[in-house]
Design a protein that fits this description.
168 residues; mainly beta; 7% helix
Length: 168
């Protein structure tokens, strides 16, 4: 039921000893690290399976739009073969996200089915989330890496724990 998401981000590197008020609470390594900071703006939208119906669809996903900013740091300690990403999300879910206007505009532009149920979307509600991801390399070789990942999201947008494994 995830319909669309658009994100614009600005990422940058800064001296390890640099500090900003907005970095408080972001978790990363202090020594022997590479840190990439990022600011972003994102809009996401979720819709029921049939967007042509002009009614609340019981048992289906409701219309929901989110508009939020993010601030994150991705910190890598090469000596420990470990990466940590921590992130704040703050914004709004509901009509103030402008998801209805965005989806309606795009569907008119591409001459697609008009989304008819946005009047039933979730009401305005603040988004405050903290997300952290820990990524230990468990196998490292010249041609192959295996990286475990443990993601935790806590807040008003999403609460989840997700373990995983990446190969590259």
């Amino acid at each position: 039921y995830y319909t669309n998401g658009t994100r614009i981000s600005y990422s940058y590197f800064r001296k390890i000893n640099g500090f900003s008020f907005f970095d408080k609470g972001l978790i990363g390594f202090k020594d022997d690290t590479i840190k990439r900071y990022s600011w972003g703006v994102m809009q996401t939208m979720f819709t029921p399976e049939n967007i042509s119906k002009d009614s609340l669809q019981n048992g289906d996903w409701p219309y929901a739009g989110c508009l939020f900013m993010s601030h994150s740091v991705y910190s890598v300690n090469r000596g420990k073969n470990l990466g940590i990403r921590s992130e704040y999300l703050f914004g709004i879910i509901g009509p103030w996200s402008f998801a209805s206007e965005t989806q309606t505009f795009v569907h008119k532009l591409i001459n697609s089915t008009s989304p008819n149920g946005w009047q039933w979307q979730i009401d305005n509600y603040p988004i405050l989330n903290y997300n952290i991801s820990i990524e230990p390399k468990i196998i490292t070789s010249r041609h192959f890496d295996a990286i475990a990942n443990f993601d935790v999201n806590v807040g008003s947008l999403m609460n989840k724990f997700k373990p995983g494994l990446k190969f590259r």
